[in-house]
Amino acid sequence: MEKGAAPGAAGVDAPGAGGAVRGIAYEEPLVFEHGSRGRCGVSLPEVGPVPAGDEIPASLRREAVDGLPELSELETVRHFTRLSAWNHGIDTGFYPLGSCTMKYNPKSSEALARLPGFANLHPLAAPELSQGVLELMHGLERALTEIAGMDATTLTPAAGAQGELCGLMVIRAWHQAHGNPRKKVLIPDTAHGTNPASAALNGYTCVQLASGPDGRLHPETVAEAMDEDVAAIMITNPNTLGIFESHIAEIAAIVHAKGGLVYGDGANMNALLGTARPGDMGFDVIQYNLHKTFATPHGGGGPGSGPVAVKAALAPFLPLPVVVKEGEDYRLVTDPKERPQTIGKLREFWGNVGMFVRAWAIIREYGPEGLTATSQLAVLNANYVRAALQGTYNLPYETDSLHEVVFDDKAQKATGVTTMDVAKRLIDHGFHPPTIYFPLVVHGALMIEPTETESKEELDGFVSAMKAIAEEAVRDPEAVKASPQKPVRARLDETRAARKPVLRWVPGMKVE
Amino acid sequence: MRYHPHTPDDVRAMLDVVGVKSVPELFRSIPAALQLARPLDVPPALDEIALFAELQRLAARNQVAHPPFVGAGCYPHHVPPVVDQLLLRGEFFTAYTPYQPEISQGTLTALFEWQTFVCLLTGMDVSNGSLYDGASATAEAALMATRVTGRKKIVVSAALHPEYRKVLDTYLRSTHDEVVTVPFGADGRTDLEALAAAVKDAAAVLIGWPNFLGVVDALPEAAALAKAAGALTIAVTAEAVALGLLQAPGALGADVAVGSFQSFGNPMAFGGPAPGFFAIREPYLRQMPGRVCGATVDKHGRRGFVLTLSTREQHIRREKATSNVCTNAGLCALAATIHLTLLGKKGLADLARLNHARLLQLREALGRQGVRPAFGGPVFNEQAFDVGDAEAVVTRLARKGIAAGAPLARWYPDHPQARRALLCVATELHSPELIDLFAKAVKP
Question: What whole-number distance in Å separates Cα of residue B95 and Cα of residue A85?
Fold first, then answer.
């Protein structure tokens, strides 16, 4: 079978364009359905003689937690190893999940984050015991400030969405200090759902702005909505269509003229590293996602890390702590008396420090040229996929793409094959599907972000698969709709999951 | 650059397909005035060997030769190598949120197991798939309580973790909810009379289990007062190993249990990342924040798992969502799930008993030096000791490379007992010999 041909046509064991065939996969029960009474997978010291003075009342104690599993170490290892084989990760294959920047996660970073000096350090260890990590945090703050073209950075937000919350709290506090927190936040229709949710959590009303026919936000739209009740506009640049908001400077001027601030969602910073800086475009605040731009692992859904960089006027409002260098020594500022205008604390202790180590490692390995090359190759890869698939899939916006490109299923409409079907068929070829049905402005969106770490051959395989699916949709739409065939599970009944929620194991649990 | 696979020939061939002459031309949609005309001012590139030398230099400037005697929300525990080796399977750690369930059954199954572990340990009906940390989970719980009850007052014990209380204040400031703090008594337990006076019209009562002072607090009594006033009881646990010895909060009247499972499988890492947990009684399900995994079947009738109830969430509901949370602490939750599987029923009970015994040994060893507990209430593996000038002890022991404890004066400068107290922890990492050495160093 030729590379790129439809896997279903010659049976499910034929390789897809990504080389996917079936391997041995095991059925595996839950850990709670495993093992045998009295088994245990840990080795602990004997308790030994216990001094008197155990005064916890019996009514507040329990002997053991009923229902916990009883597995040996090997049973545990095998269980999770088998589960892992049911997953697709970047290490398995191409993962063009748009707006998530699924780039390779360096093994070096993992080894470095596990150095005992980082992994075994307590957050309340005295400054004289923790100078190394403080130096690292200080260096990372400065680098992120420079990359964003801002004046100060806080590392503390735990993820991008908490960074958004943080940035809006800083904006609110700045307005408050000027006498009026204001009421509204302007958000384009291409924005991530976290933007309006973060604004609402901050007590702001959201005003949605329509993007233009070219996929861009236009100054006149902003001017019309802008008034002195607007605290800020939230803009992702490039936006979720992968399109640069080229009117950004003019938009920022309109917002600033009425006393508003410009918030940047840095989800798509991978397009700009070393090429353009949000601070130079008129943004006042931007949050990073270290797990996107700086290759810290996505981990099946976190941990993220969402540092926020701001212009000097907003720096006094940043959350605590901040790292300061005094002479040759580093120190965390944690006392609001030193920063009376701070919005306070957003998470316990100092931030997802383990992610700081990984992000710092890749920034150090890349250096200035490597960071710039990263955005250049990310943009090249996206444009290559765009050029190769244009004509096969409909491109709703012809405007130039940066790091990602959005197609839709319009060209497949007559076949009855939808974006969901294309996505599921890609799985049979050995690829993770793109982000689908987002952004909401594109009906049936297929949002492809290849990232810079993928080779031309890998992209060629993906393009072949996408083309093969488009052909198959015409020839045998039912085969596309019946996909995926290769994973351990076929399409899952999501309606049933929501209608009859089963959210934990209970003894005798049956889901049929 | 080892992470960039493009050869010059590749780049040329790709540019040809795109139909542009050069890489910079790909950026023509960025106005020239907005492009950076110079290299970034960040340190120069390092090869892998130099990179390791540099980060090893930094790591060596952190002193971790001894397990710290400080917990205070981040606990030194042994992480079996099994946990890390399994976490490092790229299929787990290089996957993202399981939006495509057919190729994410590994993550989803483990998430379902995590939710079950959280429910079993807390005595709750439902758990979400994790939140950022214990502090933001606490704030999210308070916000949920305001939605559930339609009230705006949150009553918080002063013995709840001060870091959690600070985060709560930050989160609630924009929503104009009111936070009322009730003091703790000489035994380190929440003052129930003050609580009774404050609880009227409250959305929730927040209390530590155990609390920040290490004390096993008056959770059943507080829950009864809250219930009578129509408020939810939110039990907050930072040291989750305690749940292996203490009764489940759900069995003592709590409606919501939140906190951190850092103690299971997650290194301290200077305070993060760690998995926040969030568990509730079933009636609050539609108001719960965060991702949740549910069981279903595939089209051949085989059991499988999916993310579900997403109509609560930001990507569907946008500004009307129950929270803005998206990425949470998936990998940290997986670490906890693996460690809890290894521990199992017997291992968790043994670990919890061992931690409690170590604390009693620490108390006895300090007692021999004439150092007494600062509060009279029962404790699990953490206790505040009356050392006088606690900051001086911390500074003196830091010179020996030991993180001695948390001086409570940092958070309670005016409290007569707390301001003289050093909060110390003892876990399975603190051998009896180490405990003796420490006690003698505290009071030489």
Answer: 12
Nearest CA in chain A to B292: A503
Contact B294 A399 (CB under 8 A): no
**Is the pLDDT at A250 greater than 80, yes or no?**
yes
The verdict on A340 and A422 lying in the same domain is: no
Instruction: Tell me whether residues A89 and B109 touch, CB distance under 8 A.
Output: no
Least confident range of A42-56, A388-402, B207-221: A42-56
**Closest CB to B89 among A57, A81, A423:** A81
User: Residues 225-264, chain A: which have Cβ within 8 Å of B?
Assistant: 243-244, 246, 248-249
pLDDT computed for residue B140 by the predictor: 96
CA atoms within 13 A on the CB side of B375: 30
* Domain identity same for A191 and A285: yes
A171 and A255 belong to one structural domain: yes
**A415 is a domain residue:** yes
> Which structural domain, as residue segments, surrounds residue A445?
369-486
Gap from B440 CA to chain A (nearest CA, Å): 18
Chain B residues with beta carbon closer than 8 angstroms to that of A56: 216, 245-246, 356, 378-380
Q: Is A438 found in the same domain as A294?
A: no
- CATH code for the domain in which residue A421 is found: 3.90.1150.10
For residue A2, name the pLDDT band (cuts at 50, 70, 90).
very low
From chain B residues 1-30, the ones with a CB under 8 A of any chain A CB are 1, 3-6, 10-11, 13-15, 17-20, 23, 26-30
Residues of chain B contacting A390 with CB distance shorter than 8 Å: none
A54 min Cα distance to partner chain B (Å): 7
Kindly list the residues from chain A whose CB atom is less than 8 angstroms away from the CB atom of residue B115: 503-504
Q: Please check whether residues A337 and A374 belong to one and the same domain.
A: no
Looking at chain B from residue 265 to 294, which residues have their Cβ under 8 Å from any Cβ of chain A? 267-273, 285, 291-294
In the block, tokens 């949470």 appear at: B328
A410 shares its domain with A294: no
pLDDT of residue A3: 47
Q: A68 vs B348: CB contact, 8 Å cut-off?
A: yes
Angle CA A469–A471–A476, to nearest 5: 85
Element (H, E) at A263: strand A261-265
| CA-closest candidate to residue A43, choices B221, B208, B344, B14 | B344
Domain count, chain A: 2
Any CB–CB contact under 8 A between A487 and chain B? Answer: yes
- Any bridge partners for residue B202, and if so which? B153
Return the residue of A nearest to B403 by Cα.
A125
> Domain boundary residue among A364, A386, A421?
A364
Ordered by where they begin, the domains of chain B are 8-49 (no CATH), 81-338 (3.40.640.10), 344-442 (3.90.1150.10)
Note whether B81 contacts A: Cβ–Cβ < 8 A: no
Residue A239, CA distances (Å) to A191, A229, A307, B27, B248 in order: 7, 25, 19, 14, 47
pLDDT value for A7: 60
CA-wise closest residue to B239 among B329, B132, B156, B121 = B121
Does ipTM come in above 0.85? yes
Cross-chain Cβ contact A41/B52 below 8 Å: no
Residues A355 and A403 in one domain: no
Whether residue A389 sits in one domain with residue A257:
no
**For residues B62 and B381, what is the distance between their CA atoms, to the nearest angstrom?**
25
> A204-245, pLDDT tens digit by residue?
999 999 999 999 999 999 999 999 999 999 999 999 999 999
Q: Which chain B residues are Cβ-neighbours of A123 within 8 angstroms? A: 73-74, 268, 270-272
Q: What is residue B317's predicted lDDT score, i.e. its pLDDT?
A: 79
- For chain B, residues with pLDDT lower than 70 are none
Strands (DSSP E) contained in A329-404 are 329-333
pLDDT value of position A11: 55
Is the pLDDT assigned to residue A5 strictly greater than 60?
Answer: no
The pTM for the full model equals 0.97
Angle of CA points B99, B313, A397, to nearest 5°? 65
Rounded to an integer, what distance in angstroms lies between the CA atom of residue B244 and that of residue A29?
24
Domain CATH for A217 = 3.40.640.10
